[in-house]
Amino acid sequence: MKTxxxxxxxxxxxxxxKRLISVVLAAALFFVSAxxxxxxxxxxxxxxxNIWNVAKKLMSINFTILxxxxxxxxxxxxxxxxxxxxxxxxxIVLSFLxxxxxxPNKHLAALIKAGAAIVRAIPALVWILxxxxxxxxxxxxxxxxxxxxxxxxxxxxxxxxxxxxxxxVVEALRSVGASWPAIVYRGMMPALITPFLSWIxxxxxxxxxxxxxxxxxxxAGVGNxxxxxxxxxxxxxxxxxxxxxxxxxxxxxxxxNKLKRIIKNTQ
Length: 267
What we know:
With 267 residues, the chain is an all-alpha fold. 81% of the residues lie in helices and 0% in strands. The chain has two domains: 12-58; 63-266, MetI-like fold (Orthogonal Bundle). The protein contains eleven helices and no strands. The longest helix is centred in the last third of the chain and has 37 residues, at 180-216.
């Protein structure tokens, strides 16, 4: 029987000293970063009054643009969901082929993990710009561009969830002659639905945020409308578009949370 290593507990004075060191290190990191960026504190504090002026302008909402903003937001959501579905399908296959406790081939698993790491290392904006440069502006290029960061994120997350599972179920199914697909589908997937859904929920928000950014680049979606309002200094329209974006994100989060509860109760 393995014994757990003894936990070293600091005295109250030692705990206070540890917290003090943490605060000092954090403050030092901030000031070093600020010094490297050569931040202009005088300009920042000198223009704080402009924040109130802009805030007052944003209070006047242009309600007439709400239907157009809602339609544009729906376009962004569809683009985000389409890329999420494609990335999810690819990630499911790749994660089970790469997870250490279920991978059928170690060399293939290492190759998939290396590929997923490379995909994650390249920022989403770079993927989007590369795809748009080859496919042209529009929803199709934006959707395809979002598939790559989605796949990289979900593959890594799914592999982590699969590898956290104990090997008892896998070994028991192997001992009775179960095939690899049967082990995955019967033995692992029922326990992985909830963590997978949690990762997907997080990725939905990221994909929608990225789809809004696509519009800011002039590709498609609600960001396009927001960029046009910003260019005209149309504060009322800016506020209306922001309200639509926030409302859509809140509704999506409520839906995902309810779906997670339903799945958890049926297990």
